[in-house]
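Check the record.
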Amino acid sequence: MVSVQSVYETVKNLANKDQKGFVSPSVFNSFAKIAQLNIINEIFEDLYNGKKLRRMNADGAGHLSTVVRLKSDLSALRTRKLIVKNTTTSVFDKPLDFSTAVSCSLSGLGGSAKKIVHLLYEEEKINQLLSSTLSAPTADYPVALVSESLEVFPTSISRVVLTYLRTPQNPSYQIQTVTDENGASIQVFSSSSSLDFELPPHYESEVVAEIAKMIGVRIRDKDVYKHGTTEETQA
């Protein structure tokens, strides 16, 4: 994952160039959260465009595939959970860290194969299926409407396995106070209480670029902003 310590040191050095400004950990953390979300949103956009290329047979094969690479970049956020129907509302509540649905299935019993629950996002399509005598959902061919919660049909289903992308944890650079060899109190990086970015290491330059742009605007440092846009162009 992208090291929050490495990114902070880089951004701090940029902002401190010619003594033009200082980036406190609290300010850095507020920008780091936004920077990570911006990059993840860009990955989703690139993934959508990559899938369009795949449909046109223009995507690369194997490890050269844009879609494969981007899915790998998001793999740290991929989570699978057994979800039990809420008996009060008769729907399946999404996990608190839910971001995007990947797939859904019925857990196989006694070694039997898992049955895929087809995910739909339009209520009109669900209503059409429910009113059909030929294609109505069954235990062998279940469907789910994804909205604020999950409605699974047929309604006799009470447990599903949901695979989804969770919301990332907010990166955090934390410090602690220690005593040096001369008895003076100094502040140093605290690895135990800090959180790295939930992005693969090759995104470090993009993270620095995103934060540099925001810091540059905040402290009106044109050199920092220029570095950010340059890094973003080269990434």
